[in-house]
Automatic annotation (TrEMBL):
Amino acid composition bias (Low complexity), ranges on this chain: 283-294
Region feature Disordered, mapped onto this chain: 283-322
Any one cellular-component term (Gene Ontology): cytosolic large ribosomal subunit
Keywords: Ribonucleoprotein, Ribosomal protein
Keyword Cell membrane: no
CDD domains reported for this sequence: Ribosomal_P0_L10e
Limits of the Large ribosomal subunit protein uL10-like insertion domain: 114-183
Cited function: Ribosomal protein P0 is the functional equivalent of E.coli protein L10.
Stated name of the protein: 60S acidic ribosomal protein P0
One MF term in the entry's GO annotations: structural constituent of ribosome
Family: Belongs to the universal ribosomal protein uL10 family.
GO-annotated biological processes: cytoplasmic translation; ribosome biogenesis
Length: 322
Protein backbone atom coordinates (compact mmCIF):
# COMPACT_ATOMS: atom_id res chain seq x y z
CA UNK A 1 0.00 0.00 0.00
CA UNK A 2 1.21 3.47 -0.86
CA UNK A 3 1.87 6.18 1.68
CA UNK A 4 -1.31 8.00 2.70
CA UNK A 5 -0.75 11.56 3.75
CA UNK A 6 -1.31 15.13 2.74
CA UNK A 7 -0.06 16.49 -0.53
CA UNK A 8 2.56 18.57 1.27
CA UNK A 9 3.83 15.55 3.21
CA UNK A 10 4.22 13.55 0.00
CA UNK A 11 6.21 16.39 -1.57
CA UNK A 12 8.52 16.54 1.45
CA UNK A 13 9.15 12.80 1.32
CA UNK A 14 9.85 12.98 -2.41
CA UNK A 15 12.19 15.94 -1.88
CA UNK A 16 14.21 14.05 0.77
CA UNK A 17 14.43 10.97 -1.45
CA UNK A 18 15.72 12.95 -4.44
CA UNK A 19 18.21 14.89 -2.31
CA UNK A 20 19.56 11.60 -0.98
CA UNK A 21 20.03 10.35 -4.55
CA UNK A 22 21.76 13.57 -5.62
CA UNK A 23 24.19 13.28 -2.73
CA UNK A 24 25.05 9.61 -3.22
CA UNK A 25 25.03 9.27 -7.01
CA UNK A 26 27.09 11.16 -9.59
CA UNK A 27 25.78 9.35 -12.69
CA UNK A 28 22.28 9.18 -14.14
CA UNK A 29 20.40 8.32 -17.31
CA UNK A 30 17.61 10.63 -18.46
CA UNK A 31 14.91 8.43 -19.99
CA UNK A 32 11.66 9.07 -21.86
CA UNK A 33 8.81 7.08 -20.33
CA UNK A 34 6.08 7.47 -22.95
CA UNK A 35 3.61 4.56 -23.07
CA UNK A 36 5.35 2.76 -20.20
CA UNK A 37 2.91 1.20 -17.76
CA UNK A 38 3.29 0.87 -14.00
CA UNK A 39 3.75 -2.92 -14.15
CA UNK A 40 6.51 -2.56 -16.73
CA UNK A 41 8.15 0.15 -14.64
CA UNK A 42 8.15 -2.12 -11.59
CA UNK A 43 9.92 -4.82 -13.62
CA UNK A 44 12.56 -2.31 -14.66
CA UNK A 45 13.09 -1.24 -11.04
CA UNK A 46 13.61 -4.83 -9.92
CA UNK A 47 15.93 -5.59 -12.82
CA UNK A 48 18.22 -2.61 -12.11
CA UNK A 49 18.62 -3.16 -8.37
CA UNK A 50 20.78 -2.82 -6.32
CA UNK A 51 23.20 -0.53 -8.19
CA UNK A 52 20.55 1.66 -9.84
CA UNK A 53 17.45 3.52 -8.69
CA UNK A 54 14.62 4.70 -10.93
CA UNK A 55 13.05 8.02 -9.98
CA UNK A 56 9.87 9.28 -11.63
CA UNK A 57 7.93 12.40 -10.79
CA UNK A 58 6.65 15.76 -11.92
CA UNK A 59 9.21 17.87 -13.70
CA UNK A 60 8.40 20.99 -11.70
CA UNK A 61 8.93 19.14 -8.43
CA UNK A 62 12.23 17.62 -9.58
CA UNK A 63 13.49 20.98 -10.84
CA UNK A 64 12.63 22.69 -7.57
CA UNK A 65 14.43 20.01 -5.56
CA UNK A 66 17.52 20.25 -7.76
CA UNK A 67 17.58 24.05 -7.51
CA UNK A 68 17.22 24.15 -3.71
CA UNK A 69 19.77 21.36 -3.25
CA UNK A 70 22.32 23.19 -5.44
CA UNK A 71 21.83 26.42 -3.46
CA UNK A 72 22.10 24.69 -0.11
CA UNK A 73 25.02 22.34 -0.86
CA UNK A 74 26.95 24.43 -3.40
CA UNK A 75 26.94 21.51 -5.83
CA UNK A 76 26.11 23.43 -8.99
CA UNK A 77 26.95 20.47 -11.25
CA UNK A 78 23.45 19.04 -10.72
CA UNK A 79 21.92 22.14 -12.33
CA UNK A 80 22.81 20.67 -15.74
CA UNK A 81 19.98 18.16 -15.16
CA UNK A 82 17.28 20.82 -15.17
CA UNK A 83 17.16 21.57 -18.94
CA UNK A 84 16.75 17.84 -19.57
CA UNK A 85 13.56 17.49 -17.55
CA UNK A 86 11.13 18.12 -20.40
CA UNK A 87 8.17 15.91 -21.22
CA UNK A 88 7.42 12.55 -19.68
CA UNK A 89 10.91 11.68 -18.43
CA UNK A 90 12.48 9.93 -15.48
CA UNK A 91 15.94 9.59 -13.94
CA UNK A 92 17.91 6.40 -13.39
CA UNK A 93 20.62 7.07 -10.81
CA UNK A 94 23.36 4.46 -10.93
CA UNK A 95 26.75 3.51 -9.52
CA UNK A 96 27.36 0.90 -12.20
CA UNK A 97 28.70 1.13 -15.72
CA UNK A 98 26.53 3.49 -17.75
CA UNK A 99 26.69 1.40 -20.91
CA UNK A 100 25.72 -1.79 -19.10
CA UNK A 101 22.81 -0.05 -17.35
CA UNK A 102 21.54 1.33 -20.67
CA UNK A 103 21.70 -2.15 -22.21
CA UNK A 104 19.80 -3.58 -19.24
CA UNK A 105 17.09 -0.93 -19.58
CA UNK A 106 16.67 -1.77 -23.27
CA UNK A 107 15.74 -5.36 -22.38
CA UNK A 108 12.49 -4.32 -20.74
CA UNK A 109 10.29 -3.62 -23.73
CA UNK A 110 6.75 -4.90 -24.23
CA UNK A 111 4.64 -5.16 -27.36
CA UNK A 112 1.77 -2.75 -27.76
CA UNK A 113 -1.14 -2.47 -30.20
CA UNK A 114 -1.50 0.39 -32.68
CA UNK A 115 -3.93 2.78 -31.03
CA UNK A 116 -5.85 5.42 -32.96
CA UNK A 117 -4.05 8.77 -33.03
CA UNK A 118 -0.74 7.32 -31.89
CA UNK A 119 2.36 8.46 -33.78
CA UNK A 120 4.06 5.40 -35.25
CA UNK A 121 7.66 4.99 -33.99
CA UNK A 122 8.47 2.55 -36.81
CA UNK A 123 7.20 1.50 -40.23
CA UNK A 124 4.45 -1.13 -40.10
CA UNK A 125 4.34 -3.64 -42.94
CA UNK A 126 1.80 -6.45 -43.33
CA UNK A 127 3.37 -9.57 -44.86
CA UNK A 128 1.65 -11.59 -47.59
CA UNK A 129 -0.22 -14.76 -46.72
CA UNK A 130 -3.41 -16.01 -45.17
CA UNK A 131 -5.05 -13.76 -42.58
CA UNK A 132 -7.42 -16.34 -41.15
CA UNK A 133 -10.35 -13.94 -41.67
CA UNK A 134 -13.52 -14.95 -43.46
CA UNK A 135 -14.48 -13.29 -46.77
CA UNK A 136 -16.91 -10.94 -45.01
CA UNK A 137 -13.94 -8.97 -43.65
CA UNK A 138 -12.64 -7.90 -47.06
CA UNK A 139 -14.04 -4.39 -46.57
CA UNK A 140 -11.16 -3.56 -44.22
CA UNK A 141 -8.65 -4.41 -46.91
CA UNK A 142 -10.54 -2.57 -49.63
CA UNK A 143 -10.58 0.68 -47.61
CA UNK A 144 -6.80 0.49 -47.26
CA UNK A 145 -6.23 -0.58 -50.89
CA UNK A 146 -4.65 -3.87 -49.86
CA UNK A 147 -4.78 -6.49 -52.66
CA UNK A 148 -6.39 -9.72 -51.46
CA UNK A 149 -7.91 -12.93 -52.76
CA UNK A 150 -10.08 -15.65 -51.33
CA UNK A 151 -8.21 -18.89 -50.81
CA UNK A 152 -9.78 -21.92 -49.08
CA UNK A 153 -12.52 -19.80 -47.51
CA UNK A 154 -10.19 -17.18 -45.98
CA UNK A 155 -8.85 -13.80 -47.04
CA UNK A 156 -5.27 -13.96 -48.25
CA UNK A 157 -3.03 -10.93 -48.78
CA UNK A 158 -1.38 -11.13 -52.20
CA UNK A 159 1.75 -9.03 -51.52
CA UNK A 160 3.34 -7.20 -48.60
CA UNK A 161 1.92 -3.75 -47.91
CA UNK A 162 3.41 -0.85 -45.97
CA UNK A 163 0.42 0.02 -43.84
CA UNK A 164 1.83 2.80 -41.64
CA UNK A 165 4.96 4.90 -42.10
CA UNK A 166 7.16 6.08 -39.27
CA UNK A 167 6.02 9.45 -37.91
CA UNK A 168 2.44 9.13 -39.19
CA UNK A 169 -0.58 8.94 -36.94
CA UNK A 170 -2.42 5.64 -36.75
CA UNK A 171 -5.89 5.86 -38.29
CA UNK A 172 -9.02 4.01 -37.15
CA UNK A 173 -8.99 1.65 -40.16
CA UNK A 174 -5.33 0.72 -39.67
CA UNK A 175 -5.83 0.17 -35.93
CA UNK A 176 -8.93 -2.01 -36.52
CA UNK A 177 -7.20 -4.13 -39.17
CA UNK A 178 -4.09 -4.72 -37.05
CA UNK A 179 -6.30 -5.66 -34.10
CA UNK A 180 -8.20 -8.20 -36.23
CA UNK A 181 -4.92 -9.68 -37.48
CA UNK A 182 -3.58 -9.87 -33.92
CA UNK A 183 -0.54 -7.77 -34.79
CA UNK A 184 1.08 -5.68 -32.03
CA UNK A 185 3.56 -3.72 -34.13
CA UNK A 186 4.99 -1.38 -31.53
CA UNK A 187 7.15 -2.00 -28.48
CA UNK A 188 7.66 0.46 -25.67
CA UNK A 189 10.06 0.90 -22.79
CA UNK A 190 12.30 3.48 -21.20
CA UNK A 191 14.34 5.22 -23.90
CA UNK A 192 17.64 6.77 -22.82
CA UNK A 193 17.75 10.32 -24.17
CA UNK A 194 20.78 11.81 -22.44
CA UNK A 195 23.52 10.78 -20.03
CA UNK A 196 24.61 12.73 -16.92
CA UNK A 197 28.05 12.10 -15.43
CA UNK A 198 29.18 14.35 -12.60
CA UNK A 199 28.01 17.57 -14.23
CA UNK A 200 28.72 16.54 -17.83
CA UNK A 201 25.80 15.84 -20.16
CA UNK A 202 26.21 13.97 -23.43
CA UNK A 203 24.39 11.85 -25.99
CA UNK A 204 24.07 8.12 -25.17
CA UNK A 205 25.78 7.29 -28.49
CA UNK A 206 29.05 8.30 -26.80
CA UNK A 207 28.78 5.16 -24.66
CA UNK A 208 29.24 3.04 -27.79
CA UNK A 209 32.65 4.53 -28.57
CA UNK A 210 35.62 2.18 -28.13
CA UNK A 211 39.27 3.01 -27.44
CA UNK A 212 40.06 2.44 -31.11
CA UNK A 213 37.39 4.99 -32.08
CA UNK A 214 38.86 7.56 -29.69
CA UNK A 215 42.41 6.98 -30.91
CA UNK A 216 41.28 7.26 -34.54
CA UNK A 217 39.43 10.52 -33.94
CA UNK A 218 42.34 11.95 -31.97
CA UNK A 219 44.75 11.07 -34.78
CA UNK A 220 42.43 12.67 -37.33
CA UNK A 221 42.31 15.83 -35.23
CA UNK A 222 46.09 15.99 -34.89
CA UNK A 223 46.46 15.53 -38.67
CA UNK A 224 44.02 18.38 -39.31
CA UNK A 225 45.88 20.70 -36.90
CA UNK A 226 49.22 19.82 -38.48
CA UNK A 227 47.91 20.45 -42.00
CA UNK A 228 46.44 23.82 -41.00
CA UNK A 229 49.67 24.83 -39.22
CA UNK A 230 51.80 24.01 -42.26
CA UNK A 231 49.39 25.80 -44.60
CA UNK A 232 49.42 29.10 -42.67
CA UNK A 233 53.00 28.85 -41.43
CA UNK A 234 52.04 28.85 -37.76
CA UNK A 235 54.20 26.52 -35.59
CA UNK A 236 52.41 24.01 -33.39
CA UNK A 237 53.45 20.86 -31.56
CA UNK A 238 51.42 18.73 -34.00
CA UNK A 239 53.37 20.10 -36.97
CA UNK A 240 56.81 20.10 -35.29
CA UNK A 241 58.00 16.83 -36.84
CA UNK A 242 56.91 17.98 -40.31
CA UNK A 243 58.72 21.30 -39.83
CA UNK A 244 61.96 19.56 -38.82
CA UNK A 245 61.74 17.19 -41.78
CA UNK A 246 61.07 20.01 -44.23
CA UNK A 247 63.96 22.02 -42.77
CA UNK A 248 66.30 19.06 -43.19
CA UNK A 249 65.22 18.68 -46.82
CA UNK A 250 65.94 22.36 -47.44
CA UNK A 251 69.43 22.19 -45.86
CA UNK A 252 70.23 19.03 -47.83
CA UNK A 253 69.10 20.69 -51.06
CA UNK A 254 71.42 23.65 -50.38
CA UNK A 255 74.34 21.30 -49.66
CA UNK A 256 73.79 19.41 -52.91
CA UNK A 257 73.55 22.61 -54.94
CA UNK A 258 76.68 24.22 -53.42
CA UNK A 259 80.09 23.23 -52.12
CA UNK A 260 78.86 23.30 -48.55
CA UNK A 261 78.72 19.88 -46.97
CA UNK A 262 78.23 18.02 -43.70
CA UNK A 263 78.51 14.32 -42.77
CA UNK A 264 74.96 13.29 -43.66
CA UNK A 265 75.13 15.13 -46.97
CA UNK A 266 78.34 13.35 -47.98
CA UNK A 267 76.55 10.01 -48.27
CA UNK A 268 73.91 11.52 -50.54
CA UNK A 269 76.57 13.19 -52.70
CA UNK A 270 78.51 9.94 -53.05
CA UNK A 271 75.36 8.15 -54.12
CA UNK A 272 74.54 10.79 -56.74
CA UNK A 273 78.10 10.58 -58.15
CA UNK A 274 78.21 6.78 -58.40
CA UNK A 275 75.03 4.86 -57.53
CA UNK A 276 76.78 1.57 -58.40
CA UNK A 277 78.76 1.75 -55.18
CA UNK A 278 75.57 1.25 -53.25
CA UNK A 279 74.31 -1.66 -55.34
CA UNK A 280 73.29 -4.70 -53.38
CA UNK A 281 75.88 -7.50 -53.42
CA UNK A 282 75.10 -10.31 -55.84
CA UNK A 283 73.45 -13.35 -54.41
CA UNK A 284 75.52 -16.53 -53.88
CA UNK A 285 75.99 -18.73 -56.94
CA UNK A 286 73.24 -21.22 -57.57
CA UNK A 287 75.62 -24.17 -57.15
CA UNK A 288 76.49 -23.17 -53.61
CA UNK A 289 74.52 -24.57 -50.76
CA UNK A 290 73.42 -22.27 -47.94
CA UNK A 291 75.91 -24.01 -45.63
CA UNK A 292 78.72 -23.39 -48.07
CA UNK A 293 77.75 -19.74 -48.48
CA UNK A 294 77.68 -19.23 -44.73
CA UNK A 295 81.01 -20.94 -44.12
CA UNK A 296 83.04 -19.48 -46.96
CA UNK A 297 81.27 -16.28 -47.81
CA UNK A 298 79.81 -17.75 -50.98
CA UNK A 299 83.24 -18.35 -52.55
CA UNK A 300 84.02 -21.92 -51.54
CA UNK A 301 85.01 -23.97 -54.54
CA UNK A 302 84.37 -27.66 -54.81
CA UNK A 303 87.40 -29.80 -55.12
CA UNK A 304 87.70 -31.51 -58.42
CA UNK A 305 88.12 -35.23 -58.17
CA UNK A 306 90.91 -36.50 -60.46
CA UNK A 307 90.09 -39.94 -61.74
CA UNK A 308 93.02 -42.27 -62.74
CA UNK A 309 93.49 -42.85 -66.46
CA UNK A 310 92.52 -46.22 -67.81
CA UNK A 311 95.36 -48.49 -68.87
CA UNK A 312 95.44 -49.25 -72.59
CA UNK A 313 96.36 -52.53 -74.24
CA UNK A 314 99.38 -50.88 -75.86
CA UNK A 315 100.97 -50.40 -72.49
CA UNK A 316 101.08 -54.17 -72.06
CA UNK A 317 102.77 -54.76 -75.48
CA UNK A 318 99.87 -56.87 -76.64
CA UNK A 319 97.42 -56.48 -79.43
CA UNK A 320 94.00 -57.88 -79.86
CA UNK A 321 94.95 -59.32 -83.24
CA UNK A 322 98.27 -60.80 -82.26
Amino acid sequence: MGFKGTKQEKKEIYDRKMVDLLENYTKALICAADNVGSTQLQQIRRGLRPESVVLMGKNTLMKRTIRTYAERSGNTAVLSLMPLLVGNVGLIFTKGDLKEVREEVAKYKVGAPARVGLVAPIDVTIPPGSTGLDPSQTSFFQVLNIPTKINKGTVEIVSSVELIKKGEKVGSSEAALLAKLGIRPFSYGLVVQMVYDDGSVFDPAVLDLTEDDLVGRFAAGVSAVAALSLAIGYPTLAAATHCFLNSYKNVLAVALATDYSYPHAETVKEYLKDPSKFAVAAAPAASETPADAAAGGGKVEEEKKVEPEEESDDDMGLSLFD
